Amino acid sequence: MTRMKKYVTAAAVAAALVGAPTMAHAIATANTPASMAGIQTAAAAKASSSASVRVVAPGERIAAAPKVQLWLTKDGKHWSTPTMTNQFRSVTDGNIDMSRPGVSLQAEPVEGRYFLSGVYNGKGDAATVKVKTEQGTVTGTIVRLAGKPGWGAWYATSKLPNGPKSKDGKRSFVHSVTVYDAAGRTIAKMTSPSFG
Hints:
Elements lengths: L1 H49 L2 E4 L5 E4 L2 E6 L2 E5 L6 E4 L11 E2 L2 E5 L2 E9 L4 E8 L2 E10 L5 E9 L14 E8 L4 E6 L5
Parallel strand pairs: 1-10
Antiparallel strand pairs: 2-3, 3-4, 4-5, 6-8, 7-8, 8-11, 9-10, 9-12, 10-11, 12-13
């Protein structure tokens, strides 16, 4: 019986030693989800910041807002809303001066919000667009074709404006539209546009 106790004791010690790395592994594994959560959070933050740029194929339609589609062709920006289908802003008809940086704005109410969009051109790779409105600043999404066409489009949504229009029937709801590169440098800016 004494010999049997020695074998059982030896087996228990061996199991404990063999189990030691397993226990360490279990402790490391138990800590991994927390550290992985930090890594995943950082990755999600990076993904969300890069999610403000969409590279599309010519004619590829994207859902820019509820019931709004937007697409690009080599000739410009196209979009459709429930009340106005197949709208177009050309980059080839001469209405946009492609020799210097610029950004345009089109705005219309859709589903209880303003759908804001436009075309930009300038040097650098656009990373984000900020639209300063009377109700605060909204961050939009850049849409561009693959390669370096020198222009792209942007879109955002905002709450509808408050208050009455000015005497001329227009209001300056959007104060500025600025397109930035990844380093925060301004590619193009429009200040104080007015629309009815």
